Amino acid sequence: MGFSFFPFNRVDEFKLSRLHKSSYFHVYHQYANNHVEQLHNNKLTKFQRKFEFRFLNSDKIDAFVDIRNKKIDCVYITYGFVVRLHDLFYKLFCNASVFPAYGSAVGFPSEAHLAFKPYIQNKTVFYLAPTDETRKQLAQFCSSISMQFAILHEIGHHMNGHELYRIHKTGPITKLERQVLEMDADAFAVTNSIQAAFLTEEHRQMAFPDLQLSNIEYIRLWIYLVHIFFLFMSREHDFIYKERMELKYLPRRIRSLLAAQISFELFDKFYPQEPHDFQSLFVDTFHQAERDYNSTFHQASSAAELESCFSDDMLSHLDEINQYWRHTMVHRLAPYARVPLFQQN
User: According to the lineage, what is the superkingdom (predicted)?
Assistant: First the structure.
């Protein structure tokens, strides 16, 4: 998930006409295009070329920004990304220990049933889904929030000018630049996800009325979902601190922490009078998400990764990234950015 040279042919596009109008693919397609249209209508953008969000016919988990077309800018997400993310939460909510207060979860199946069954003959088949309707709806709600975060991350690459910068830059993108740009796309996704939807009580009640949660409890749920999302995205790419500069992504738990910090800043902006203990909330939510994910998918957190994520060396590296953003990248991206760039406090 990021910005890179578009690796597919146009014939690989997944046609929405193959699916019912009520499918989640149509919902996500409309969500992405409406979000960009709203930015245009609010005159927050420059370089107002036509924009389109599209899907690719691939079982892989991937997403791309493509601005090579002279008439239109595109953000692509693979079909497999959507299906596998929904599959993740269906399985998660079959686990009786995950949010036990909602609905009724049956006994959890054996590990053999946790495999993903791909798209077959125009029909998505899941090995497993909650039989309880409340838990099934909750799984779908959580899937949609997580998918919106992924979509907004890619739109962030587009709107903040990352691909334009890459094209016009002399020489390749450095590893430090990649990490900074991924952090910037995450910040865009967090800010827009919360501002546009999650702190709007009316939206929450329409989306899932059975969740009678306070504002701070909703923030906790959102942080939980983002952490699950990062665990899901990175489970095949575990690495420890000494390898961090060999990859374009920061450790998944660090990205989750940065997303939580931004969400807390937004919460203070929306609800300055509400009491809270953000540190305890994050720690509790962090451990709950780790337990739920590991128990569902028979994973084990790497002690080396956990230790390295919050080491002095990693914290020093995060400060380096922040300083590089403030003093270098924000100025380099400014000529290409379509929206005001995020400034982390």
Answer: Bacteria
